[in-house]
Amino acid sequence: MELEARGHAVRWLTLPANPPDLMVLPPEQRAPTVIAQVMTSRDNLDEVRTELSRVRTDAMVVDCLLFGALAAARLLQIPTACFVHTVPGGLGGPTSGFPSAALLSTSIAAMLESMGLPAEDEPWALWSIANPIVASFRELDLPVARAVAEFDWIGPLIPRPSTLRVTEGAHILVSLSTYPGFRALEQPKAQRILDGLSGLDRVVHLTAPNLTIEDLRIPDNVITHGFVPHEKLLEDAALLITHGGHGTLCTSLAYGVPLLVIPNPAADQPYLADRIHAMGAGRALGYDAEPEQIRAAVSLILEDASYALTARALQATILSTPGAARAADRIEALVPAPHTL
Q: What superfamily in CATH does domain 2-155+322-334 come from?
């Protein structure tokens, strides 16, 4: 870690101490539960206060979706950097937002009121006053997000190749979400993808640490894997088919590989899928896309060179971003200078 390499003592506080078990909840209750018990938890104030009293702390870095912890840091007057782990437009602001945006706004406002802080229901407003560090690149978001002066776009914190791509890849990589809460969504989608790729004159690699492989019909041209770091398979990939998680998506572009994004109806995934489609770095299909639609989209991306060219242009953009070094600079700037006599 960059801060530790610079000689700083870094410790991690996982919030909440007892996270909800989403697997026992029906799908319609999962987002409200996460918002209430994790993202806007009023318990964060006591948890953060206890931790700060236990060990001297010069500054905090808080994930952008832990609004309770951001509010706690504000009340306790501890220098704080808000770490935005995806494009801001996908999680709020004057954009389409994500599927639970309205519920989140209501919960944020109620939490702030209960803590005695000024009423606010917009995530961007809370981020903007907390030194926001955005671990993404500007071009991936809408202009309204790119224009926010407080957002410091450091680029995605992902594995990066040492050189730019100059040749076409050969195989197709399929990589879906590893989050256990999405397993029920990803299993049937994976089968539709495999059916769409069956018989295609391309080798397909499926990384499936979150899928039940034995329950899938695997075509002859598909090689299955458990967990494999994306960079191991992207170097010779012509296309990545994915759910559209920010890290997976940015890693693909960092290797100059275009995408077919089939998002789950959750978080920032539909937003990011739309952005990839609009930018021309790939195509987006709805979650329920049928095998023939998937096959047609794959053929279009592989046959139209513009998608690969756009992905390569975005690769150069990503590789030019400062990354972890810039984030460490911003965090170090929050630490009060030592007193001298």
A: Glycogen Phosphorylase B; (3.40.50.2000)
